[in-house]
Inverse folding.
């Protein structure tokens, strides 16, 4: 059975959605990043980058959420979209991977978790997060799904990060991103998305952002103490 190493962060959740949409049997293995479990030798043997998600599918170990989405789509022949749309699909998937995810994640970090306020960093990452989300919103204003009328892995990739928009940009962000909100709601209504979201009930992940969690998640801060 396929093994799925996960937390409740955006990237693992989009893989959880894909697994549920495909109906593939899998063993969900929690990795509590606030307890530092991602740095355990047994886990870094799977992903040297010490991040979730990871899947182990027989002899294949795949890390990076977007690589996993492509791997599962290629494996099953599902949710790839039409062959003639392969180029645009890859372009938008990399847009999510290199733009939406990193800038939204850094916006969250500097707004909520940085040890001290950094107005320059907040301004930069909030600006870039907004810029990327507005590009995506404009794209969706012309189509039902990311690839037109067909629901694909791209919508799953967007869903994972769209769930974090209020935390990153504020609850009022949806007023400026109505098409993203429309997609988020449409995906969230799917039974597979509801099963993926229910993963939160399978394991009691640590929620406190205490010193242990900061050391595990932001090890660069230890350099400031030396």
């Amino acid at each position: 059975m396929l093994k799925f190493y996960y937390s409740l962060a955006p990237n693992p959740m989009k893989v959880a959605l894909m697994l549920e949409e495909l109906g593939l049997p899998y063993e969900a293995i929690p990795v509590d990043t606030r307890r530092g479990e991602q740095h355990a030798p047994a886990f870094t043997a799977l992903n040297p980058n010490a991040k979730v998600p990871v899947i182990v599918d027989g002899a294949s170990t795949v890390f990076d959420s977007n690589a996993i989405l492509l791997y599962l789509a290629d494996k099953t022949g599902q949710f790839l979209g039409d062959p003639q749309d392969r180029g645009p699909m890859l372009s938008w998937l990399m847009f999510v991977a290199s733009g939406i995810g990193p800038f939204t994640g850094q916006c969250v970090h500097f707004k909520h978790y940085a040890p001290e306020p950094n107005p320059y960093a907040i301004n930069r990452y909030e600006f870039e997060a907004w810029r990327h989300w507005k590009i995506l919103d404009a794209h969706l204003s012309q189509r039902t799904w990311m690839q037109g009328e067909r629901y694909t892995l791209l919508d799953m990739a967007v869903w994972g990060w769209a769930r974090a928009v209020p935390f990153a940009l504020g609850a009022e962000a949806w007023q400026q991103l109505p098409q993203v909100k429309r997609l988020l709601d449409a995906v969230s209504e799917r039974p597979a998305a509801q099963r993926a979201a229910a993963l939160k009930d399978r394991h009691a992940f640590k929620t406190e952002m205490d010193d242990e969690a900061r050391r595990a998640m932001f090890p660069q801060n230890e350099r400031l103490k030396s």
In short: The CA atoms of residues 107 and 126 lie 5 Å apart. The beta strands are 2-6, 26-30, 54-57, 60-63. The longest helix spans residues 86-113. The first strand starts at residue 2 and ends at 6.
